[in-house]
Amino acid sequence: MPITAIPKGVELRKITAVQKRALDELITKERGSSALTTALVVGIPSIIAGSAVLAYVFKEEAKEWFDEQEQKVKDVVKDVVVKTGETMVELVIETGNKIFRNNPVTPEQYGGATLDRCTRWAVDATENLARVQKGDLTKTEIAGLASNLVYIISNMKSEGCSRPSAISVAQWG
Question: Global pTM?
Answer without folding.
Answer: 0.45
